């Protein structure tokens, strides 16, 4: 899962980024409205966390431009005031949810996960591929009722494949899912992560198949 944080308060920004990366999210961070507007035209995100009041362009204007482009990415507004006017402004601009500063870490993470579930249309709390289970609420993988221990990027790739189970996922799409703007994207690294995941899934009925020239697909080997 890849998120964009748009926040000009450096201390708060670092706290949120560290919190979300600890939750196995890939996080890009931009400190002003104009920068966010540019990034949102070139990158795809699962959720955008957008401060209401930003330098160079307000969060409301960033959101308005985003929606005019037909981009329906879920947007969680960060506002310093919980007034009715602020709430109305958030939703009028096209926000999906909002949270009032200062907020609790658990609340922020819970709201992000709720937006992701709503966007995916998945009402089930558990996705299944053979004997591999993915718990949507905790973003945890389990195999034979035991947690499947994965490194952060391995987890991100398997999560992307599970959420698009039965569909081909290109290598470029996997690169976008695991690398942030601060990283150096590597196609060779994806091959390494896929190799490691296949080892983790060696005793599972879930299989990562390679479709040469197209990408990868997660399937139950018995299908």
Automatic annotation (TrEMBL):
<keyword id="KW-0804">Transcription</keyword>
<dbReference type="GO" id="GO:0032993">
    <property type="term" value="C:protein-DNA complex"/>
</dbReference>
<dbReference type="InterPro" id="IPR039420">
    <property type="entry name" value="WalR-like"/>
</dbReference>
<keyword id="KW-0805">Transcription regulation</keyword>
<protein>
    <submittedName>
        <fullName>DNA-binding response OmpR family regulator</fullName>
    </submittedName>
</protein>
<dbReference type="Pfam" id="PF00072">
    <property type="entry name" value="Response_reg"/>
</dbReference>
<feature type="modified residue" description="4-aspartylphosphate">
    <location>
        <position position="51"/>
    </location>
</feature>
<dbReference type="Pfam" id="PF00486">
    <property type="entry name" value="Trans_reg_C"/>
</dbReference>
<feature type="domain" description="OmpR/PhoB-type">
    <location>
        <begin position="124"/>
        <end position="220"/>
    </location>
</feature>
<keyword id="KW-0597">Phosphoprotein</keyword>
<dbReference type="GO" id="GO:0006355">
    <property type="term" value="P:regulation of DNA-templated transcription"/>
</dbReference>
<dbReference type="GO" id="GO:0005829">
    <property type="term" value="C:cytosol"/>
</dbReference>
<keyword id="KW-0238">DNA-binding</keyword>
<feature type="domain" description="Response regulatory">
    <location>
        <begin position="2"/>
        <end position="116"/>
    </location>
</feature>
<dbReference type="InterPro" id="IPR036388">
    <property type="entry name" value="WH-like_DNA-bd_sf"/>
</dbReference>
<dbReference type="InterPro" id="IPR001867">
    <property type="entry name" value="OmpR/PhoB-type_DNA-bd"/>
</dbReference>
<dbReference type="InterPro" id="IPR011006">
    <property type="entry name" value="CheY-like_superfamily"/>
</dbReference>
<dbReference type="GO" id="GO:0000156">
    <property type="term" value="F:phosphorelay response regulator activity"/>
</dbReference>
<feature type="DNA-binding region" description="OmpR/PhoB-type">
    <location>
        <begin position="124"/>
        <end position="220"/>
    </location>
</feature>
<dbReference type="GO" id="GO:0000976">
    <property type="term" value="F:transcription cis-regulatory region binding"/>
</dbReference>
<dbReference type="InterPro" id="IPR001789">
    <property type="entry name" value="Sig_transdc_resp-reg_receiver"/>
</dbReference>
<keyword id="KW-0902">Two-component regulatory system</keyword>
């Amino acid at each position: 899962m890849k998120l964009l944080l748009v926040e000009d308060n450096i201390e708060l920004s670092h706290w949120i980024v560290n919190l979300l990366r600890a939750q196995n999210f890939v996080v890009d961070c931009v400190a002003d409205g104009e920068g966010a507007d540019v990034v949102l035209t070139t990158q795809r995100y699962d959720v955008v966390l957008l401060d209401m009041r930003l330098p160079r362009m307000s969060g409301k204007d960033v959101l308005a431009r985003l929606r005019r482009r037909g981009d329906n990415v879920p947007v969680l507004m960060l506002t310093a005031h919980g007034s009715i006017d602020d709430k109305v402004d958030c939703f009028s601009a096209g926000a999906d949810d909002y949270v009032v500063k200062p907020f609790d870490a658990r609340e922020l993470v819970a709201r992000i996960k709720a937006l992701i579930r709503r966007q995916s249309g998945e009402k089930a709390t558990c996705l299944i591929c053979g004997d591999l289970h993915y718990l949507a609420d905790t973003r945890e993988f389990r195999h034979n009722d035991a947690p499947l221990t994965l490194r952060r990027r391995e987890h991100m790739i398997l999560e992307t494949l599970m959420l698009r189970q039965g569909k081909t996922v290109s290598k470029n799409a996997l690169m976008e899912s695991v690398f942030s703007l601060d990283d150096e994207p590597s196609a060779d690294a994806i091959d390494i992560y896929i190799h490691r995941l296949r080892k983790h899934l060696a005793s599972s009925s879930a299989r990562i198949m390679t479709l040469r020239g197209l990408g990868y697909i997660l399937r139950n080997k018995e299908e």
